[in-house]
Amino acid sequence: MQEPLPLDVIIELKDCLIWQQDHLVLSGVNLSVRKGEFMYLVGRVGSGKTSLIKTINAQLPLREGTGIVAGYNLSKLQTREVSMLRRKLGIVFQDFQLLIDRSVHDNLEFVLKATGWKNKQEIETRIGEVLEKVGLGLKGYKMPHQLSGGEQQRVVIGRALLNDPEIILADEPTGNLDPETSEGIIRLLKEISTTGRAVIIATHNYTILKRFPARTLKCDGGKLVEVRMDEEIELI
Fold first, then answer.
1. pLDDT(189) > 80
2. What is the per-residue pLDDT for 74?
């Protein structure tokens, strides 16, 4: 019988192998993340960062090891449970993935309806809340192409917050943004972590790590290792 996790632990991986199709990218992965924790995941391109994130959100199956995410056992996940797990996760992509043929408001409405929201007033209230949270309270009527890159990424973060997730997974969220805009996005994600949500950011942005230091894990040589704050982190 599996031992219960400490109450404040939201992600627990033990002795996990992380596969990308038939390619083993990480072995012996041990990771414990607490509620409200803000942390970075770094490493070279192809080192396993994205594969690890995709395993946490059940895009890639966990074949070996134990993985508990938001109360769900990754290795025993039933098909019907995948959507339930993903409602507890908010995903932020580098390339936004907004629907370009509809407004910011309608992008968010689409996600809510797709995840089971039906009451029109509740939908409107929730959209207003998340747009306010990400600093776009007056921009719901705009189309994605009318927004700056930073504003589009704020919409994506708002979209990730719609279903009040316990975990935010951000894969290179500042990859297409200038330094000043990047700082604003990281500040926003850091603020979100103070509301009790765990935030994991996969990044190449060394400047961000120096500017906003936090617990940092590195994918290196097929292993996941913790990096001390006083160490120089080689990302390239």
1. yes
2. 94
Q: For the stretch 18-48, what's the b/e string if a residue is b when 16 or more beta carbons lie within 10 angstroms of its beta carbon?
A: bbbeeeebbbebebebebbbbbbbbbeeebb
Convert the pLDDT of each residue in 30-58 to its tens digit. 999 999 999 999 998 888 999 999 999 99
State the Cα–Cα distance between residues 92 and 58, nearest whole angstrom.
15
State pLDDT tens for residues 114-129. Answer: 888 999 999 999 999 9
List Cα–Cα distances, 220 to 16, 42, 84, 225, in angstroms.
15, 9, 32, 7
User: How far apart are the C-alpha atoms of 78 and 67, rounded to whole Å?
Assistant: 14
Mean of pLDDT values over 78-91: 90
Of 35, 39, 44, which is closest to residue 213 (Cα–Cα)?
Answer: 39
> Any residues with CB less than 8 A from the CB of 193 and at least 6 apart, and which?
36, 37, 38, 168, 199
Model confidence, pTM: 0.90
Q: In the Cβ-directed half-sphere of 45, how many Cα atoms lie within 13 Å? A: 2
- Grouping H, G, I as helix, E, B as strand and the rest as coil, residue 223 is strand
Rounded to whole angstroms, the Cα distance separating 147 from 163 reads 23
Strands 215-220 and 38-43, bridge-based pairing: parallel
Phi and psi of 67, rounded to 5°?
-135, 120
SS3 189: helix
- Cα 50 to Cα 44, 65, 85: the distances in Å are 11, 18, 18
Determine the length of the chain.
236
